[in-house]
Amino acid sequence: MAITDEFKVTIDQFEGPLDLMLHLIKEKKLDLFNLDLDVLADQYIDYIRSMEKLHLDIAGEYLAEMAELIEYKSKKLLPRDTSELEDNYEEDTREVLIQRLLEYQQFKEVTGTFRELSEARSMQFDKPESDLANFYRKESELNSASNDGTMAELLKAMNQCLKRYRIMQPMPVSVAHREVSAEERIDTLKRRIPYFPEVFSLDDLCADCEDVYLVIVTFLAALDMIKNGELIAAVSEERILFRRGVNYGK
Amino acid sequence: MENKKAVIEGLLYISGDDGITPEKLCQVLSMEEEDLTSLLENMTKEYREDENRGIELVSYGGRYKFVSKEMIAEYAKVLYEVTPANNYSPAALETLAIIAYKQPITRSEIEEIRGVGCDMILHKLIARGLVRESGRTDAPGRPFLYEVTEQFMDSFKLESLKELPKLPDFRSPSEEKELFE
Q1: How far is residue B73 from each of residues A117, A213, A217, B50, B84, measured CA to CA in Å?
Q2: Are B148 and B99 in contact (CB under 8 A)?
Q3: Is the Cβ pair B115, A19 closer than 8 Å?
Q4: Fewest beta carbons less than 10 Å away: which of A50, A122, B21, B28?
Q5: Is this prediction's ipTM beyond 0.95?
């Protein structure tokens, strides 16, 4: 059966098992108040199984609810014990789930209003408090030692302080140093050398160097290549010149 | 004393996004709370209704402050070439709503309602200053209780929790009766 085609909504679009159940109830046009738990359980289990087939990660919470639904179903399938306990179990499981779904649905619905409120709020701008620190000193701070500030106030004060401090400081700029080994540099040089003329200089090798560090690594790489017979070096008029050695390209 | 409205306006201007509580204003202006409240309500109305003004007086989380009017935002967008960021994930909104209506509430109670773990999202909301711990229960393990902050109210245009939107009621009376029969 093509279960996977049937479910177009993937599991990561739900906020949890209750959200998924509400979706299934809506999609299958089930009545939440007269909930047929058998149908919901089947739908839910089918859905989770189909998501497993799609190799989607399924959070533990979904599996825990599925286990409960399977337990409910299996208890129903067992030969009927007419004792009251069994009846209560079925009725209770259903009632508890309906209550949970109703309560969850309330909060899920109201989040729409909260989103609207926050969007409206984000269109109202306010400004930071005027900085009086340079003109006034807080009398209360000087005169009274009593301070019943909460943790939150302390944090706020610290943040203010850091903010002010940051404004006073130059922008932090960090220059990351890319460490290149001589071996890596040799590889790069070997890719570049074919484009060089018969005789080329150390300056040519260093043309792509961004810093002194890389110049030094290039020099070391060149020394290695000379040792291996891949390059032959000569010094002329304070310039180091190279040409290809016997082992070049081997 | 000078015009009280002018003094209040000036003080609110200085206080910026921090705002001022009515209690503090009473103290500074040596006014009765009643008089101040009606004065503030009056000013709020004046700012809001005066179409020649681009700022308005609001009271969020128990603090009065000035903000630019909503209709200014579209011009600010052009001026600063910005678009509003979508600030809250569905998980954050659900968790905030549950805490706001049910506070003080423990983490496990929130998780029971949402049906998923809320450890991470709670930490994030606390870090953003929207939620804070408010003591512990006497239940086993003495779990923390959580409540929303003034900053939460500020972020959702609420003067106090009394202003929370009404929770939708999905039970019609007859069905409710059925459920409890």
Answers
A1: 15, 50, 55, 18, 9
A2: yes
A3: yes
A4: B28
A5: no
How many Å is the maximal CA-CA distance in chain B?
Answer: 66
Cis peptide before B104 (omega within 30 of 0): yes
Mean pLDDT of A163-179: 69
The CATH code of the domain that includes B155 is 1.10.10.10
Contact A33 B16 (CB under 8 A): no
B65 and B97 co-located in one domain: no
Residue A237's pLDDT is: 72
- Asked if residue B110 and residue B72 are part of one domain, the reply reads no
For residues B76-100, give the mean pLDDT.
88
* Mean pLDDT on A148-167: 74
Q: Are both B52 and B116 inside the same structural domain?
A: no
Distance CA B54, CA A193 (A): 67
CA dist B181 and B177 (Å) reads: 6
List the CATH code of the domain at A182-244.
Answer: 1.10.10
The sign of the CA dihedral A207, A212, A214, A218 is: positive
Q: Produce one character per residue of A163-173: b if its CB has 16 or more CB atoms within 10 Å, e if not.
A: eeeeeeeeeee
CB contact (8 A) between residue A123 and residue B70: yes
pLDDT band at A140 (very low <50, low <70, confident <90, very high): low
Q: Which of B165, B79, B94, B169 is nearest to B124 (CA)?
A: B94
Task: Tell me the residue range of the domain where B117 lies.
Answer: 90-163
- Structure tokens of B107? 């983490």
Which string of DSSP letters, residue by residue, matches B88-138? --HHHHHHHHHHHHH-SEEHHHHHHHHSS--HHHHHHHHHTTSEEEEEE-S
**pLDDT number for residue A1:** 41
Length of chain A in terms of residues written? 250
B28 touches chain A (CB under 8 A): no
Residue type, A141: E
- Angstrom distance (rounded) from CA A46 to CA A190: 59
Q: Read off the pLDDT of residues A103-118 as tens digits, 9 standing for 90 and up.
A: 999 999 999 999 999 9
At residue A77 the predicted structure's pLDDT band, cuts being 50, 70 and 90, is: confident
Query: Is the minimum CB–CB distance between B80 and chain A shorter than 8 Å?
Result: no
